[in-house]
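Tokens as discussed.
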């Protein structure tokens, strides 16, 4: 069984994330969505809220694709999380060249820690390349329309946070 790990903070999950999840499903038998605790980023949504949002969005995806998606919170090293879930591939989404520079360094470090786990990059769909969770939160905080960037349930959760 091919198991892939798609890690991130998903604060909140965006249409860019769901695009990568849907396309990653074609590459693996089981996709584990690793939800990083990442206290340094000071997330808007709690870990429990982020996990719940992802589970809801992934249920809709598995209804379409029939694949298996598991949402798995983690607070350890990414490579250790990959080992914990049995992943042989880490899936990363790229939006722009700036993403690649950071991701390139991460791949090198992860390969040094465990060369048996590969990293695969998926480019975000052209319509989704500008979407960043940080920007979505800022738009929502200032009362802007985020419906083009996040699923409806996430839009409602953002509105609730900022009211």
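Sequence:
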């Amino acid at each position: 069984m091919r198991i892939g790990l798609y890690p991130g903070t998903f604060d909140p999950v965006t249409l860019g994330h769901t695009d990568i999840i849907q396309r990653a499903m074609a590459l693996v038998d089981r996709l584990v969505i690793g939800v990083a605790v990442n206290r340094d980023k000071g997330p808007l949504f709690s870990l429990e809220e982020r996990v719940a949002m992802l589970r809801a969005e992934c249920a809709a995806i598995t209804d379409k694709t029939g694949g298996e998606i598991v949402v798995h919170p983690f607070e350890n090293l990414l490579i250790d999380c990959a080992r914990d879930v049995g992943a042989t591939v880490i899936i990363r989404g790229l939006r722009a060249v700036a993403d690649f520079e950071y991701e390139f360094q991460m791949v090198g470090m992860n390969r040094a820690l465990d060369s048996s786990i590969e990293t695969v990059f998926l480019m975000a769909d052209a319509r989704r390349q500008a979407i960043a969770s940080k920007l979505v939160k800022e738009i929502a905080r200032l009362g802007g329309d985020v419906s083009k960037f996040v699923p409806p349930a996430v839009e409602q959760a953002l509105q609730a946070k900022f009211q």
